[in-house]
Amino acid sequence: MGTQGVSMSPVKLLVHTHKPYLLKSSTVIHPLEHTIQLLKVSADTKNLRFGKMIHAHLIITNQATKYNRVLVNSLINHYVKCDQIMVAHRLFDGMRKRNVVSWGALMAGYFHNGLVLEVLRLFKAMISVDYMWPNEYIFATVLSCCSDSDQVVEGRQCHGYALKSGLVFHQYVKNALVHMYSSWSDVKGAMTVWNEGPGLDVFSFNIIVSGLLENGYATEALGVLDRMVDECIVWDNVTYVTAFGLCSRLKDLRLGLQIHCRMFRTGIEYDSFVNCAIIDMYGKCGSISNARNVFDRLQTKNVVSWTAILAAYFQNGCFEEALNFFLEMEVEGLMPNEYTFAVLLNSCAGISALGHGKLLHARIKKSGFGDHIIVGNALINMYSKSGSIEAANKVFLQMIYRDSFTWSSMICGLSHHGLGREALVVFQEMLAAKECPQYVTFVGVLSACAHLGSVQEGFYYLNHLMKKTGIKPGVEHYTCVVGLLCKAGQLDEAEVFMKSTPVKWDVVAWRTLLSACHVHQNYGLGKKVAELVLQMDPGDVGTYILLSNMYAKAKIWDGVVKIRKLMRERNVKKEPGASWIEIRNSIHVFVSEGKTHPESNQIYEKVQELLTMIRPMGYVPDIAAVFHDVEDEQKLEYVSYHSEKLAIAYGLMKTPSGAPIHVIKNLRMCVDCHSAVKLISKVTNRVIIVRDANRFHSFGDGVCSCGDYW
Fold this sequence. Notes:
Blueprint: H1 8-17, H2 32-44, H3 48-60, H4 69-81, H5 85-93, H6 100-112, H7 116-128, H8 136-149, H9 152-165, H10 171-183, H11 187-195, H12 202-214, H13 218-230, H14 237-250, H15 253-266, H16 272-284, H17 288-296, H18 303-315, H19 319-331, H20 338-350, H21 354-367, H22 373-385, H23 389-398, H24 404-416, H25 420-432, H26 439-452, H27 455-468, H28 475-487, H29 491-500, H30 507-519, H31 523-536, H32 541-553, H33 557-569, E1 578-583, E2 586-591, H34 600-614, H35 632-640, H36 643-654, E3 661-665, H37 671-684, E4 688-691, E5 696-700, E6 703-704
Parallel strand pairs: 3-4
Antiparallel strand pairs: 1-2, 1-3, 4-5, 5-6
Helix pairs in contact: 2-3, 2-4, 4-5, 4-6, 5-6, 6-7, 6-8, 7-8, 8-9, 8-10, 10-11, 10-12, 11-12, 12-13, 12-14, 13-14, 14-15, 14-16, 16-17, 16-18, 17-18, 18-19, 18-20, 19-20, 20-21, 20-22, 22-23, 22-24, 23-24, 24-25, 24-26, 25-26, 26-27, 26-28, 27-28, 28-29, 28-30, 30-31, 30-32, 31-32, ...
């Protein structure tokens, strides 16, 4: 081998053949630069064996001495990149005289191994022991460590030191500082560094846009993108991924289309990250067709791209499509990951597909994804929304690691099932675990207080604990407080609260008060609230029905006729009542008085049998809300065959004795069905869970979890 250069073929030979005789001491000693180049190759290829052979050769030839800094630095770099950090550190400790490269190589090794505190210790030793002045690469490494470990004090000290050294304007240092402040959510600090001095490259722009986006400053991030365009900065793939993420956050389809067109014009090479970002953007902007077109045109599809399109279906409410499309993924032979399972479980939650969710749960256990937090959270959500709060609680208790979403999901699930006291107990456990409550956590907590009618406790959480945790109450929290006052029978106080609270109330909040007027028979206030709701949304069917029912119960038949006429004039049609039940992985749908089911005759007979069984227990059909121009016999038939009664009867016919029955209804459960199902649960000794438009009703032994307030 000559001394003027080293061709690549001998290097490849050494890397791949590992022939020891090539490095025997009898061979010609390679010049220093050749050995360093070989060590660099071994480091870059992570070829530990080859590097050790070179190291042994250097020892034999007496070249690897503690005085030869260049060679020892190369060896440190080799062992660091081969994850032999302790060997590297021993070489470092044995050096008689170190330079900035020695310190930088070892610090980089500890940083890439996640030992950030050791990096900071080395940095302090470098300055105080060796009196060495760090270069821009060491500053970038140390600042990255401060970002990853939230070492705020040390990070600010490094910033000051970089400022004194003049390296703060170096691109590596500047970018590391921007990233550090962004990771601490100190957007002001990040922008100050970013705006100081010259020298902004595409990496600088990418870091600040990403930092602004992650901290909720979407408008400011859009402004930075505009500046990139104005300054003709060439975008790279990271820029496009971040830009599509910004479109997703803003739900701005037009901007997303513009950026997608820009990609076509510039001819940038697509990679899997960009493709998934585009699919995600279209999904979150409500254009599922564009998301599907992008997906179908992918030459190579992996689990990430499949998960992205499944998530797009889920985000657009296409829950069945997501579950069905997953079957095509399986045909392709791709294994789902934890994110895929999370999307599928949340899709099951969207349609309360308990049976399908259980099958997925079994598969998760088999494939070993059960310990992932995102999967555990999705399981809690699926079981809660599918009516099996006991299974959700079992998953919660078995989770090894929990985050704020885990606690919030469990609290909201318990609250939604009417288990207010249990929800508040879990909330106290969350606080004891030092987990910080989120916005949605307090929605569940205040909802639990509303179920319990605990006015004082609810206002404590609203006015004191939320303020203490730095969470600003939103309309969802205030709506829960309205429900809380209504549950306690304080309807006038609820009206005063709504008029005095400076928030933009929506239809849901006013309808909460309207429902309470219906339950507490405060028809005067109910009429006033209903008129207000219909001014806000003239097409709100639920308000017409509630107002009509209030008039009917008060026997104000002229009012009922007026509402019916108003609905005809405004072309507002009541949605037919429908209920469905899952039996052996098949969905059976029932409509009120419907006879399309193949076993309709047997189902109707079962309903009559059940009604006959509960009449001696005090059941009297509630026909007060049925139109007055209908004969009593027709009224009885009308309420007897509501969709939930048909579904429950079929469930009793087809499920084993003692098995719980899960029914979903598209509308609010009527008073007659509620009374009947309570008694049916007692006479059949079954737990019957009905999810209506408002909440879950868990019937058992003659009582309902809602406490007859819904």
